[in-house]
Amino acid sequence: QKEVEQNSGPLSVPEGAIASLNCTYSDRGSQSFFWYRQYSGKSPELIMFIYSNGDKEDGRFTAQLNKASQYVSLLIRDSQPSDSATYLCAVNTNTGNQFYFGTGTSLTVIP
Amino acid sequence: DAGVIQSPRHEVTEMGQEVTLRCKPISGHNSLFWYRQTMMRGLELLIYFNNNVPIDDSGMPEDRFSAKMPNASFSTLKIQPSEPRDSAVYFCASRFLQVANSPLHFGNGTRLTVT
């Protein structure tokens, strides 16, 4: 079983819609959860992180965490074509300094 | 802040040759990670260092791979001898170890092609 699981997609949404990206993790003791965006040929860049149950909003982005269900999600409101990228979920485990990444979800926002 | 600096950006080499990838972490960061990314396997953690000490190298594929961090501002990943299946993008990332929820900051990566 992989530490972090994501649907690989591709996920397509029309411009202006809400894109919903999901991630599950296996280590119940995981502490922190990160969403990265990676454009083709570029390095991952941090969008936001969350460590408490509930929602955390940053501009058009909302991260949601449910530790009981071992589930974290990212919502992108008012999706723009520039949001088209691969979104990586990362989990910082409780056992140390480990960062595990999912394989990423490819998002395409259609103008 | 210059960010994490990796060199070279691209490396093309022939099978059997030695390859050395370099990384300079963000100044003040004391935890450094090496990842490999391929389409098939995504981002794989190879090894990470805390305060220049290797903590977990269980992700290093085999003995052909080695990594060092001689000081807080420099790390190398060496592949000797290289093989075509080593072709991938190699990322270095750094963070503050002692700051809770400190994220990883990635370098621009080295695209390695072994022919």
In short, what is this structure?
The complex is a heterodimer of chains A (111) and B (115). Helix content of chain A is 0%, strand content 55%. By secondary structure, chain A is mainly β.
Protein model, in words:
The complex is a heterodimer of chains A (111) and B (115). With 111 residues, chain A is mostly beta strands. Chain A contains no helices and eleven strands. In chain A, the strands form two sheets. In chain A, strands 2, 4, 5, 9, 10 and 11 form a six-stranded mixed beta sheet that branches. A five-stranded antiparallel beta sheet of chain A has the order 1-3-8-7-6, with no helix packed on it. Chain A is globular. The mean pLDDT of chain A is 93. Chain B has 115 residues and is mainly β. Chain B contains no helices and eleven strands. In chain B, the strands form two sheets. In chain B, strands 2, 4, 5, 6, 9, 10 and 11 form a seven-stranded mixed beta sheet that branches. In chain B, strands 1-3-8-7 form a four-stranded antiparallel beta sheet, with no helix packed on it. In chain B, a hairpin with a 2-residue loop joins strand 5 and strand 6 (53-56). The N and C termini of chain B lie far apart (36 Å). Chain A binds chain B through residues 31-32, 34, 42-46, 49, 51, 88, 90, 92, 96-104, and chain B through 31, 33, 35, 41-43, 45, 48, 50, 55-56, 91, 93, 97, 100-101, 103-109.
